[in-house]
Structures are given as C-alpha cells and as structure tokens.
Design goal:
By secondary structure, the chain is an alpha/beta fold. Strands 9-8-7-10-11-12 form a six-stranded mixed β-sheet, with helices on both faces. It has four domains: about 130 residues; about 200 residues, von Willebrand factor, type A domain (Rossmann fold), CATH 3.40.50; about 45 residues, no CATH class; about 70 residues.
Length: about 525
Amino acid sequence: MDDDRFRSARAVIEEEPLFSEFELAGLVGTELAERLPDHLWLIFEIARVIESTDTELGKRLAPLVARTTETDGEPLPPLPTVAAEEYEADLIRHFHELPLIYPYQFLLPDEVFYQRLAERSLWLPRPVPPRTYRFPTASDTFAPDPRKQKVYVLFDVSRSMNSHWRIVLAKAIAYVFLQRNMRELGTVHLRTFAEHVGERYTADDVPSFRELLRRILLLDARGRGTNMQEAIEVAIADIRSHHSLSDAEILVVTDGAAHLDVERLAELMGRSIRLHAVKIGHERIAAEPAMVEYYARKLGTADARRLIELQERRRQLQLDLQHANTAMRRSMISHDIGVLDRLIAELAERIARYATEHFGTDIEQLADVFVQLDDLDPAEAFRLSPQRQQQLEQLAEALLEEFSAHHRSEDAERMAALLDHVRHLLRFNPDAQHLEALVQKLEGALRQWMQSVRSGQYQDVAIPASAPLLDHVRTAIGSRRGDGLSLGVLLRVLWRRLVRWIRRQRQLRIARVLLRRRWRR
C-alpha cells in the first residue's frame, strides 16, 4: 500500500507539465536572475488558457498559434522522415536517475564523475514511444532545419504595454507560440522595440532556444515610444540581407500604439515576406498639437499636404511682418495671418480626428493574420477553476509527501517554484483556503529543510544542495505575502542600489570634468 502511494505521488510530480515549462524557461534547474518580474509566474496560467481551444482567448488566438503550413494556397513540400528507436540517449534530469546511466561512465575518475553528476551531464537511455520524426533530427524538442519555416518576432516593450496586464498577455502569447511550434521552426529571431529597435537574438539550437524563451519571460517594458515602423523595416532588411533568414515570417506582438507607412512597408515586404500581428487593447491618443504636426508629415493625405503648405506660408508671413516698414503693410500681413490661422485650425481638427480614429489600425492592413484582443481583467483571467485548484492542491500534497520521505534537492527546487507560482495566484483567489494552507506547509517544509542543510543533517543525500538552489529556496520562503522581504534579501537589494548609486556618482563626476575641459578649450 505504501508503494502504491509512493508511485502515485511521484507520478503526480513527474507528470506535471508545469514543472517541464519551468525547466524549459530556466526557472528550475538553473541559476535564477537577480530580479524576476512580479508577473512572471502568472504568465504560465495565461498560457494554459491560450492553449485550450475551449476558452474564448484560445479560440481567438488559434489561427496565429497554429501556424499555417501553406504558402500561397499550395502545401509546403513534406520533409523526409525517419523512425526513432524506442530508446534515446539523453542527459539525466534528476539525481535519482543515477542508477540508470550508461555503465561505462562509472569508470570515470571520481572528480570528473561527480562534476558531471552535479552538472547533470551524464547520459542514460531514456525510453520513448515509437514515433516518426522529420529528418534529420530525432528530437521531440526544438529541431532546426534549413528547409523549415522561420519566424522573426518583434516584441513591443513600450511603457504602454504595462497597462492592463498587456505585457503578461504578450509574453504568454509569444511563449505558447514558440513552445507549440518548436518542432517545426527552423530558426527563431527576436527583436524588441520601443523608441528604438533592440538587438537581434537568434535561436538555432536547443540551448539558444531555451535562452530565447527565458529572455522573453524576463523582458521589461520601459520604452518611451513605439517605433513600430523602424522595427518592421529593420526586420525586412534582415530577412532580405541574410540568407539564413529567407522566407521568414514576421510576428508582431504589440498594443498597436503607433502609426505605420502602410504603402512603404507593403512595397518593402513584397509577396515573399508575410507578417502576422497580435494587437492587445484599444489604445487611443489625445489630439495634441505635436501629434497633429507629426501625423501631418507622416500621413501624406491631401489635408496633410495642404496643412504643411499653410504652415510654411504662415512662417513666411511672420518673417515679412517683422520686416514690414509701414503700418498698412503690417495690417495686411496680420489679416492674412489670421485667415491662415483659421484654415490651419480647421485642417488640424480634421487630421486630429482622422489620426485618433485610425491610430493603431495600420498594422491590421499589413497583417496576413491579425488578432485583436481586449485588455485582461485580472480578477477573471487569474481566477482558478475548481479543476485547476484541485490539480495544484494535489501537486502540493504530492510534493510534501515525497519531500518528507526523501528530501531530494530537485523536489526542494520544485517546491520553491510552486510556492512562488501559487502565492501569486492566491492574490486573485482569496477564497482558496485549502491551497493557502498548503502554501504555508510548503513554506514550513522548506524552512525546516534549509535549517537541516545548514546543520549538515542530510549526509546521505547523493548530491548536496547547490548555491543557486539554496538562493532560490531562500528567496521563496523570504518573500512571504504580507511579511515583506527577508533580512538577507533586503540587504542584497540595498547593496545593489548602493553600488548603482556609487557608479552613477562616478559617471557624473567624469562627465563634469569632461565638460569643464571642453569649456576651457
């Protein structure tokens, strides 16, 4: 009976897809970043909603997430296939898989063996069901191939993306899109854009693909503008100039708060480059004078051209007024300026009305697949269904049962990740009292484990807890909701801020010295 319970609890843990997603995103099994976005753990719950075709959000995004396999109405030529063996060589994922590794590795020197064990770089035969894979790979993960379709992702990181949880939804869309299609994508490219276009990142193998996913999840939206025009032009130029990018599709994830020169971009894209877009929210702008002048120069309509001509004529009359010699001449020029002001105001009002009505809709004209999404309602989006709440409770109970019996370090890391994940969900689910009680038990178990590790109680553990793992657990149990930061975390935060302040003061001193030297010259 105990063995049945053991297998059941272990099966619940090992078969939970959430931990696979954490591992793929680099949140389990690797050293975490110094600072994680507050919304990071909520992305995975939104991703679950997107992946389900039973939800409204999943139905809206289905045409985009399930990428087309046709080009101009004709099916893409199939790739050659090869049947996989029933076993595949794979790296160990957990320390309890040590007895399953290839025997010849036990002949390694002890120092090399334990180093590889700690790095999880030992090999073992992993059973897999018979499957047919596309040549030349037999992997069920990211499999680059020059004949496969490539994707160029443009991700909006302007400050407007922070409104109404847009950045959470955007990251979840990009995450699901790449994760679902990683067996089909040949190469993935990513650029962020705001007032400027960011650096291009490329994924062409499994490690770089995981790093790209992790980069997307950790993005911050701090830009002060949305220069989507330049971002798309840069992507088109990259695709045109690099052979490895040929036939790449562009995916734009944005809140749409930007104007585009549709005719120019359509001409640059031609028929070979396709663009898909997700627009989140219904961003609008205020009709300010600076915006009217900007659009007058960008739109190119008859009203816009006429407005520019009148503004130039008014500037010329203003100069003539300053140099007029007689009162009659000044009166005539002033009268002409008044007439121009009324005409300019009328044209500016029409342009402002046009701009506010069409602002953010230009991308729709360019996109082959365009998806318009409403802003998230967090109370609705992050509400746990009874079934999902039960799944999380079963997972927490299974981890507590397994951890109390074996104290495996990988289970401690999973508990820390689950603790962070559930704690953020509980902010929007105050009635989940049983889940709240399990969170407190997880936290208590991790605190007790940390004390035991410090005292050296668990000497029979095959591999001691690593420093990144201890930091992860320490952060998880130190960020308890309502208790604030732990002393250690608080000291690290204050130390980083002090270092940044000292560097900033040093840079300011250097700048002052340089300016003084320049003025002296």
